[in-house]
Specification:
By secondary structure, the protein is of the alpha+beta class. The protein contains 1 helix and 3 strands; from the N terminus they run E-E-E-H.
Length: about 90
């Protein structure tokens, strides 16, 4: 997986391909740009949202097909549930 890292000294941001088990490894190493120790941390950015038409962008509302599916789930689920469909 690709993870994003940032150096607290030089503020450089970069991506690195790491396995899930090794995702914290760059945080224990020197910054590859300024060589500062104990300065690298993982940047936590939200993944891009997919719009209802399949393109990249911010989705502002639940697509109709999903709303219909959630209504069916709520209708046929036994007992109380937490699905809130508008």
């Amino acid at each position: 997986m690709i993870y994003e890292y940032i150096c607290s000294v030089c503020q450089e941001v970069w991506e690195d391909n790491q396995t899930i088990d090794n995702r914290e490894k760059p945080c224990r190493e020197r910054c590859p740009h300024c060589k500062a120790e104990n300065s690298v941390s993982r940047a936590y950015n939200a993944p891009p949202a997919l719009s209802s038409d399949g393109g990249k962008g911010i989705q502002t509302r639940t697509p109709n097909w999903m709303r219909d599916r959630l209504k069916n789930i709520k209708k046929y689920s036994p007992g109380p549930n937490t699905i809130n469909v508008k």
